């Protein structure tokens, strides 16, 4: 349109009439984009110019910019310095070759990761030896999996060729930060081949529902422009160059499509974002996508993660079950007492089993007391400690292990019962045949003596809870000084492991030191127990278990410990009749369970395993499968030690927040990777599913027929029943009956999907959005929630224990789940209502002047001559009406307290009545009425001078717009009054300055004043009366609440 003004036959007025508004809009947009681009440029320049030390061939180092780094360079990375490229750790300042890194900007996890240097280069004396060692490094081709790396290190030396395998433990990915010491690394990937870059995807641009609705209305307005132009030409007649006249009409009516609408909406969104971030009731909230704040007011479904979202991801040890006895929070002191007695007991001299024990020791018979569980308790926590007391009609017996000795005490009531107890005592890993021992006492006088003897047994074995983990204690002191327990901080990749280690410290076993090859435990008697770590098998999402092989230094015993999920460990441990039941019981209490087992290895078995394991790690093809196959040879018939229960506490105010969302008509689905029982318990404890609500557990299905039958069973209960389904069953449903399943699930008040993978979460979001057409909000806190957050219409990330990856990928970042309530009920409501009013009023502003132009053209022989020219048209859409119209972004229909107290008000937002075709047509009718009233009134009331008609109509138009803003406002703000006053002052100043458009003498006359008052009253007074009557006769719901 603006370019057409360069054509003389199409020129309507002055060039600045069209180019000035267009230039203003483009300038605002370009300045904003240029500012963002300028910030990106300086940020990229700062990163690319970051200086790093590169090791030279003589061992010296020089600084180079990160943009100059290339593959095969050897770099020195200092503490707290970001890694510029993907490196292989060659040498660390730590003697044991370890290095901690922070990966929160890569995988979202806040815990430090332990990395290992290549042993061959770690042992070298200086950097020159590392650079000139002549080694070759093989690395697999670049891919986006940050949890895997396959490579090899080959070095030729005098003894021969040294070949070592490289894995993820030797890799430092770009964008991670060295947290301790200094690292020397070899660059293997740079630029777009780094893991960070390959995991960076361009997320799809999210377009809000308001923007889509405005785009639809804009299409209607464009059609209206073309129809109106064609109608005027048709009435005038298709004589002469009618197509040229029609195009001139299109240019004249182009104000119907206001170009300022997009700028005003974008500026309004920026204001909404500022309000959200400055809200004191939701501190720490960050708006990362300022284009969709209105979406917060249109949410129909909230899909939430469980761990770290509904729960705090702060693990607290709650339960220890050893098969016969369960210890809770109130009985943990018993375990501490057992351990304290065990380590404080005096050591006795050893006695030969074949010798005759003393008959002179008189001891009072042991009375019958309740059965104790010292054996399994201490075995689960620290070692083989046993107290067993029993009674029979013929005998009272007591066994106890103190230090490294076994004491057995009998009080025989009948000497003929001795043989009966020959095979009575069978302890974990030790079976005692009592025939040889008891035959010496076959003729013992009854009820006269209590024979007592002692056996030497193998020293107690450390268990998984104290040593089977990947936790490292970090002290805030120099490496050369002795560690202080008060300054200790535990670092691990999982909060579950930290909870277990903290609990063992609470009962008396403290993780004192840990390095690459050894671990030290502080015992209750302040002695230090040393253990060598032979192998560690880290936890992975595929294996769902972790293991460790340790060697107890004092005894030389080699033990394989493993812990993991019950579904996996049930197939690995020996047969038992209590594991499944107890795991289900803990899950019903909302506890996260871990099953712990062990296996004692002989040296021959371990050496054979070590040989096969190292050979598998050196393989360059199918390394992961071969390593897993070798490890599985040890995972057979493990002795079941215990089951632990860890509680993940609910977030603050989760229950009232979920209740608020339910009252607002928002349905909440919980998607979690936990087991079914745990998910069900959290759903009930958080009130996502009420206690008295029916629950349908979708059975495990494996085929299409089973799925069909289960869906039919679910269909009979669907409307009022909560659904709980496993991820594996969901896959089958989505494969065969996706639409049917979604239709049934949408009828449920709550849906819980357990054992759900990150990919499934995104699939559920996409399927639900495409099928229902509703607005979906996804809430998560970990890296596994990023795909779900990016797939949703509105993504909320919670900054939690699992890091910031979800927060950085989300559209809105909050610190607690309870902040979702104010974010949706208050800010979502206000943003949607304000944008709806602002957009429709701007459309009204363009329609009313276009209607006036149409009336003017039709009266004056359908001439395509503009009614207002020059600065009047420029000022109308900018300085004369801009401030009052934009002040609508401060309007609100209800106060925040009312919106939170009555979440039912959110129901009406789902219907989209604030911005709909009905409200649009209503504003069109208002524009037609007011435009016609102003134009016809001005033409009827003006005298002989046309400039007077311009003065009357334009002044009435400005006053009408300002009064309509006042009639639209529901809650006044002092800035709104200021904007009205400023606009009036600017317009009055323009009347005095723009003498070419206004007659100064006429402006001060009474005729001018009363004509403007009459026309303005005719255009606004009927609308004010209608609005008052509607408010009195049919008030909106929110007015009753106020």
From TrEMBL:
One GO MF term: ATP hydrolysis activity
Enzyme class name: translocase
Cofactor: Mg(2+)
Annotated Mg(2+) binding sites: 305, 307, 781, 785
Chief localisation class: membrane
Compartments where found: Endomembrane system; Membrane
Residues given in the record as ATP binding sites: 305-307, 497, 539, 563, 592, 672-674, 755, 761, 784-785
Domain P-type ATPase C-terminal: 808-1035
Catalytic activity from the UniProt record: ATP + H2O + phospholipidSide 1 = ADP + phosphate + phospholipidSide 2
GO biological process: endocytosis; phospholipid translocation; retrograde vesicle-mediated transport, Golgi to endoplasmic reticulum
Membrane topology: Multi-pass membrane protein
Domain of life: Eukaryota
Any Pfam family matching the protein: PhoLip_ATPase_C
GO cellular component terms, semicolon-separated: endosome; plasma membrane; trans-Golgi network
Domain P-type ATPase A: residue ranges: 53-196
InterPro entries per UniProt: ATPase_P-typ_cyto_dom_N, ATPase_P-typ_P_site, ATPase_P-typ_TM_dom_sf, ATPase_P-typ_transduc_dom_A_sf, ATPase_P-type_domA, HAD-like_sf, HAD_sf, P-type_ATPase_IV
Regions that span the bilayer: 16-35, 216-235, 247-265, 842-862, 868-890, 920-940, 946-967, 974-993, 1008-1029
Catalytic residues of the enzyme: 305 (4-aspartylphosphate intermediate)
Keywords annotated in UniProt: ATP-binding, Lipid transport, Magnesium, Membrane, Metal-binding, Nucleotide-binding, Translocase, Transmembrane, Transmembrane helix, Transport
Its EC number(s): 7.6.2.1
Family: Belongs to the cation transport ATPase (P-type) (TC 3.A.3) family. Type IV subfamily.
Protein name as it appears in the record: Phospholipid-transporting ATPase
Source organism: Ciona savignyi
